[in-house]
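Handoff note, outgoing to incoming analyst
You'll be picking up this chain. Sequence as last confirmed:
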Amino acid sequence: VNEFGNLSYEVWIDATVIRHQTSKDPGLNVDVNGIHESYHSPDELIFDIIPSKEGFLNIFILGEDESLHLYPNKFEKREKFEGGKLYKFPRSTALDYEVSSKDSMEVNYLVLLYTKVEIPFLEEETPEKILQFIAKIDPWQKWLKSYSILIRQK
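Most recent structure output, in case you need it:
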């Protein structure tokens, strides 16, 4: 407790600081349509993208209990996307992206990482490893968007 009666915390952080020499490419953008703020469990996650330039996509789900590298996966192989073209997800008609929760309510984060060059994610699927992977990529090479998704039981 400080001199004003407020509760304060002192925290030590073990961090790696990455200083990039470039800034974001304003011409690199991806239009995303179809992602909702909330879903009822179980529900399908269906959306489409239109990238402004050719590149590669990684999609991650970050949750409290688990994280997942949603795309590419063993059923949907990595592909180079063309600029100006519409792509629907899931890419495979044999696959559904299911949004579900065992709890009455849960928040997950859908993270779309679009890069100019192929940068495969090969680490363990933990939030820390995913965020470290994203942070190491040069800003000029990437476009990043995250969506907060509320999942409720029906």
